[in-house]
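Input.
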Amino acid sequence: MPTIHPTAVVSPHCHLAPDVQIGPWCVVSGNVTLGPGVRLLGNNYINGEGGPVAIGARTIIYPFACIGYEPQDFKFAPGSKTAGVVVGEDCLIREHATIHAASNDHTPTRIGNRVFMMVNTHVAHDGQVGNNVVMVNGAGLAGHGIIGDNVTLGGNAVIHQFCRIGRLVMMSGDCAVSLDVPPFCMVNERNRIGGLNIVGLRRSGMPRDQITEVRRAFRDLLRRPMPRSRVVEELRRRAALGCNGAGCPPLLEMAEFIAASKRGITPGMGKPPRVGRSDGQKQGSEEEAEVGVED
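Output.
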């Protein structure tokens, strides 16, 4: 039978696994499902009134974290139905973290498995966060953003709405992006990729010869201005040849990510920055600056 502190308020519409623990002063309302081993440590607010909230097994939620409340979206009418929130298994959601409900009625805001959201982190409405993601204190994902698996966001790193962050990306603290970040890259300043997440690639178990091919591709194709069609074509060609003709899946992953981009790709260090010059003219064309290419 669930353990519920006497000061907690739990709606009769909630579905609780037998070993759930709900600490003091928690408020769990509406259509909320708490999986096996879920622990709410105290002063947690889980809102399933507008749409369902599901918390996966063994997830631990620390004081003052809030999940499932209405999206911060001017187009969303208060009281409207929402697809809610789904949080995966084995997540750690620390103090004052917030996860907002979807702004639609068909696809929930989704957090993957083994996600670590540290203090004051935020996932906005309709966000999609992959597995094994770490969001360091103050990091935030805006509405409709997508974060791939095994991504690390440094402290106060922020992602603009509708942006995509590829698998195994690492963002340094205090960085911001308003463009898509290709898989395996490191963001070291605002809208700028400075290299590859080599440590992350090695830890992921990627073979050494594939890492070598990814490094060559980054050096040749992502550090300087080049038409996007040429970048995608060359990545696909190299992916097919790969390591001694055996193919290289990570290069194909990069190619398809870049080909699918709607916002443009964060440029490398060798590309023109989006800053004004002393004569009032932009340095490099806007198209080159945003995606490093001319389609």
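Residues 275-295 have pLDDT under 50 and may be disordered.
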